[in-house]
Amino acid sequence: MFNDINYFCSLMHKQKTVAFHTLGCKLNYSETSSISRMLELEGFEKKAFTDIADVYVINTCSVTDNADKECRQLVRRINRKAPESLVVITGCYAQLKPQEIANIPGVNLVLGAAEKFNIAAHLKELTKNDSGKICSCDIETITGFTSSYSVSDRTRTFLKVQDGCNYNCSFCTIPLARGKSRSDTIENVIANAKDLANKGVQEIVLTGVNLGDFGRGADGSKIYNETFFELIQELDKVEGISRYRISSIEPNLLTNEIIEFVANSNKFMPHFHIPLQSGSDTVLGLMRRRYKRDLYVEKVNLIKTFMPHCAIGVDVIVGFPGETDEFFTETYNFLHALDITYLHVFTYSERENTLAVEMDAVVPIEVRNERNKILRNLSYMKQQYFNQQFVGQNRKVLFEDANKKEMMEGYTDNYIRITTPYRAEWANKIIDWQL
C-alpha cells in the first residue's frame, strides 16, 4: 500500500505517459488515434507500446476468437514488463464481454462503447488499487456519434463518418458492440477533411461499420436526409486532398450512381472493397445477407465497365455452419470466375449471442482452416494476375513517409503496392511510376 502511494505521488510530479495498441479494423485505428490526441491535450506524453508507460490502452476487436486471445496475451505481456502501470481495455470486446475482461489479472479499467471517448475523466480517478473496474452500458442506449480520424505519417488517414449497424447478419456481433447505425453530418465531415488537408494529409480513407447507410442521425433514424452519394460529391470539392478511398461498402448499398461518380472523379480512387461473405446463395440466406450472387456480379461488372483498371477487394467467410463441400466449391468457382483483385478471407468462429451459433451442420475446424488456405491461394493468384495487366504502364503512386529498413512503400491509384529504396524527397508525394 505504501509503495502504491509513493508511486502515484511521484506521477503527480512528472508528465504521465500513455501507450496504445489497436486490434481489428480501420475504424478502431481512427478511434485510437483520436483518443490519443485527447489524452495528449490532457498532458499525457504518447509512448510506443513496446516502451514503459504509466498507462496502456488496448482498443479491442471481437470479430474472431483470435482478437480476444490477443487482448489477453497483451495484458499478460504488460504485467510482466510494467507491473505498476495501469491497463485500460476498450473497444468491441470490452462492450461485449466486460466482466470477462475485468477478470483478467492486471486489467484496471474496462470502458464500453459509450465511455471510450471519456477516457481522460476516468483516468483522473483511476489508481493501481482499482482492479477490473467496469464502465459500460446497455448498447441500446448509445445514440451519440463521435467523429475520429487517424494521423500517423500525414500521408493517409482513416476518417470515421459512420458507426453502428442496423443489419442482423446471423454471424455478426458488431451491432451488439457498436449499436445502431448513426452518422456524422456532411458539414462536420467536410470540416474534418479541410482540417486534414491543412495538416498535409494527401489521402483520406472513409471508414465506418456500414458506410452505405450514411445519413442516419445520432438516434439511428434517417433524420439528416443526407446520403453517402451526397457526401462523396461534397468531399470531391475539398481543396488540398488529393485522394479518397472508400474502405468497404455493402453491395446492396453500392448504388450505380456511386460507381459512375467514382469513375469520373479525379480524387476518388478506382478501388472498391465490397463484402461478399459467400458465393453460395444458400449460405448467403443462412447468413441473412441482403443480396444474392446475381446482384454482386452486376456490381462488379458495372465497375469494370466504367473502370477496367479498378481494384476490387472482397471479404469472404469460410466454414460457416451449413457450408457443405458443394457450397464451398460453389464459392470458389464463383470467385475464380469473378473479375476481382484480392480476397480478405475470414475463418468462421462461433460468437455468443448470434443466430449462427445455434445452427446445425457445424463445419470442423480443420476443414475451415483448409478452406481458408485454398481461398488465400486464390487471392494471391488474383492479385498477381491483376498486377501483371499493368506492367509497363505509368500510374501515380503516393509514397508513405516511413523509412522501413531503408525502403519505402506506396500505392498506385488502383491499389497496387510499390516498394522502393527510401528517398526522403518522395515522402508524402505522388510520383509518376512505371510498373
Summarize the structure.
The chain is α/β, with parallel strands linked by helices and 435 residues long.
Task: Provide tags for this entry.
alpha/beta; 4-stranded mixed beta sheet; 19 strands; 435 residues; 6-stranded parallel beta sheet; 14 helices; Rossmann fold; pyruvate-formate lyase- activating enzyme; globular; 3 domains
Tally of helical segments: 14
Give the C-alpha Rg. Answer: 22 Å
Q: Tell me what portion of residues adopts beta-strand conformation.
A: 15-25%
The whole-number mean of residue pLDDT values reads 91
Strand order of the largest sheet: 2-1-3-4-5-6
Q: What spatial form do the alpha-carbon principal axes imply?
A: globular
Structurally, how many domains make up the residues?
A: 3
CATH classification, class level of the largest domain:
Alpha Beta
- Low-pLDDT runs: none
Report on this structure.
- It is a single chain.
- This protein is of the alpha/beta class and 435 residues long.
- The protein is 35% helix and 21% strand.
- The chain is built from 14 helices and 19 strands.
- The protein has helices at residues 2-12, 26-41, 65-81, 92-96, 98-102, 119-125, 174-178, 186-198, 228-235, 256-264, 281-287, 293-306, 325-337, 365-388, and strands at residues 17-22, 45-47, 55-60, 86-91, 109-111, 133-135, 148-149, 156-160, 162-163, 182-183, 203-207, 243-246, 271-277, 311-318, 342-347, 394-399, 407-412, 417-421, 430-434.
- Strand 1, helix 2 and strand 2 (45-47) form a beta-alpha-beta unit.
- Helix 8 (186-198) runs parallel beside helix 9 (228-235).
